[in-house]
Design brief:
Largest sheet: 3 strands, antiparallel
Number of helices: 6
Shape: elongated
Number of strands: 3
Order of helices and strands: HEHHEHHEH
Radius of gyration: 23 Å
Length: 128
């Protein structure tokens, strides 16, 4: 018996080409899965998760406790944004995650109108 057994091959090693991680998938269209799109996990079975690559499993785990932007997922997995978008697309196709468009910016309101509403509410509360 040899004590010098080689360690198992780690597919997430930095020397593994990214096309291996992407499993030959094409990059999604630019308008899909923007950097600020929000990703969250749906209810999934552990059987479905066992068939995933380690990278896809990591993405699924990251988004299982709430919403993360696509950019945050890429940063936390230390994978390029394009590869992250491919993994998210695969998880969407499997029905394991949901991607929501980014929240639009709030519309600025007329401060004078808001102040008038507050003043009116204060008068009503004090007068009652």
């Amino acid at each position: 018996m040899h004590d010098d057994q080689e360690p198992p091959l780690e597919l997430t090693h930095e020397l593994v080409p990214l096309h291996v991680i992407a499993e030959g998938r094409a990059l999604p269209a630019d308008h899909e899965y923007s950097r600020t799109a929000l990703v969250t996990a749906l209810e999934y079975s552990s059987a479905a998760a066992r068939t995933l690559t380690p990278e896809a499993r990591k993405v699924l785990h990251l988004v299982s406790n709430g919403l993360l932007s696509v950019a945050e997922v890429a940063g936390r997995t230390e994978l390029p944004l394009g590869i992250t978008r491919m993994l998210i697309q695969h998880l969407v196709e499997l029905g394991l995650v949901f991607v929501r468009p980014p929240t639009p910016r709030a519309v600025s309101h007329d401060r004078a109108l808001l102040q008038a509403v507050i003043d009116g509410l204060e008068k009503k509360t004090l007068g009652a």
